[in-house]
Automatic annotation (TrEMBL):
Source domain of life: Eukaryota
Protein name: Mpv17-like protein 2
Record carries keyword Glycoprotein: no
Alphabetized UniProt keyword annotations: Membrane, Transmembrane, Transmembrane helix
Keyword Nucleotidyltransferase (UniProt): no
GO CC terms in record: membrane; mitochondrion
């Protein structure tokens, strides 16, 4: 009886892996072994040790594959590509959320695909500089003491932030074939708003980033927090365009 239950459980492994996945498999195998035990008059049903070993082994293999994949993506060989992909995803996601909101309140009637494409390209453009920027900061100011973190923060906010906003607005201006006068107007109006917002919100985030986050994960942490800023960037940029139009 126990052998037949084991064979049934292995059959379930093949079926469930292709459809419903491990959770249903565990419940079904537990039910079958429990019923087997109760049919024998046992007060406590026992799961077959070999079957449980298969389950635990499968979960460990999945875990190790995930860990190995993350380590590969954030290895020195692929870190630039990973950080660039993160930047593109964050930029596109931020604009998508903003457009969903604008559609929901009927501020716009149709999805602007060109706008999302242009924002995504800015993520592609800004991804590599962000990657090398954090490496440069660590090269210039090695360590994570309070004084060093303060230097990194000052350097980042006074030099990196204005450059980042300039690249963002310039990239969009070129992609959208904006005139030079319009780009200058956006630098003065939109750029000023974005810069003040960055200086208000970003310093505490960067203190955490420089003090506690390993170098290879800093762009990921930066983009995770700045996802809200990507939404805000999209809002400010295209709100300004509508006002000027």
């Amino acid at each position: 009886m126990q052998m037949s239950s084991l064979l049934e459980s292995r059959t379930l492994v093949g079926k469930n892996n292709s459809h419903t996945g491990p959770p249903r498999l565990y419940r079904e195998c537990w039910r079958r072994f429990a019923c087997t035990g109760l049919a024998k008059g046992q007060t406590t049903a026992k799961l077959d040790f070999e079957t449980m070993t298969v389950f635990v082994g499968a979960r460990k293999r999945i875990y190790h594959k995930v860990v190995s994949g993350v380590q590969l993506l954030f290895s020195r060989k692929y870190l630039l590509l990973t950080n660039t992909a993160i930047s593109i995803t964050s930029a596109a996601g931020g604009d998508s959320v903003q457009q969903f909101y604008e559609l929901s309140i009927q501020r716009q009637q149709t999805w602007n695909k060109d706008r999302t494409l242009h924002i995504s390209i800015t993520g592609l453009i800004l991804g590599p500089p962000s990657h090398y920027w954090y490496h440069l900061i660590d090269y210039l100011f090695p360590g994570s003491s309070v004084r060093v973190v303060a230097k990194k923060l000052l350097f980042d906010q006074t030099i990196g932030t204005p450059i980042g906003i300039f690249l963002f607005l310039s990239s969009l201006g070129i992609l959208e074939n904006s005139s030079f006068d319009k780009m200058l107007t956006e630098y003065k109006n939109c750029g000023k708003t974005l810069l003040l917002s960055e200086w208000l919100i970003w310093p505490p985030v960067q203190v955490i980033n420089f003090a506690f986050i390993p170098l290879k994960f800093r762009v990921l942490f930066d983009n995770s927090v700045s996802f809200g800023f990507d939404i805000y960037y999209s809002y400010i940029k295209y709100r300004t365009d509508k006002v000027s139009d």
